[in-house]
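step=encode ok
step=design start
structure_in=
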């Protein structure tokens, strides 16, 4: 979990491989209306995120019922979003990838230059404003993104 540009997809895919599980990118589950809204520079609100989070919760439930390990990259910016995901009826843990605004902005700017993501760097501040830092939440671990993706995946696996 974390704001855009923190490395959720990169670290998540490495972590899934380490755990022998499957990686799912939460961005792939956004309805087109959400993607269009973000691409136009508008932040999502709670109503926009509700159905998306419910589909991720259902994915967690399905994978757990099948006995599979799943790693899902999802911003999960607010506690109530994380609580909704915890409703999956499975053991849900969060790895919060946290970093400085400067580093996040640099990564988002680089990603935008490559043209491989719909989320513009201009929405970083709205995500940081929305983020409710997960202090004291069960099964939640915080990692600093200044380390390499491989070392973050190793640390995440150790924490889990």
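sequence_out=
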């Amino acid at each position: 979990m974390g704001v855009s540009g923190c490395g959720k997809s990169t670290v998540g895919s490495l972590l899934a491989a380490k755990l022998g599980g499957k990686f799912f990118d939460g961005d792939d589950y956004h309805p087109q209306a959400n993607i269009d809204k973000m691409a136009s520079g508008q932040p999502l609100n709670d109503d926009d995120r509700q159905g998306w989070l419910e589909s991720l919760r259902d994915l967690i439930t399905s994978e757990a019922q099948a006995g599979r390990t799943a790693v899902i990259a999802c911003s999960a910016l607010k506690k109530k979003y994380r609580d909704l995901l915890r409703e999956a009826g499975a053991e849900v843990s969060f790895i919060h990838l946290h970093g400085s605004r400067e580093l996040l902005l640099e990564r988002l700017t680089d990603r935008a230059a490559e043209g491989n993501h719909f989320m513009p760097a201009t929405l970083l501040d709205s995500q940081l404003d929305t983020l409710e830092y997960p202090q004291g939440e069960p099964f939640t671990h915080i990692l600093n993104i200044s380390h390499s993706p491989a070392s973050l995946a190793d640390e995440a696996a150790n924490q889990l």
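step=design ok
step=annotate ok -> Strands lie at 22-25, 70-73, 94-98, 140-144.
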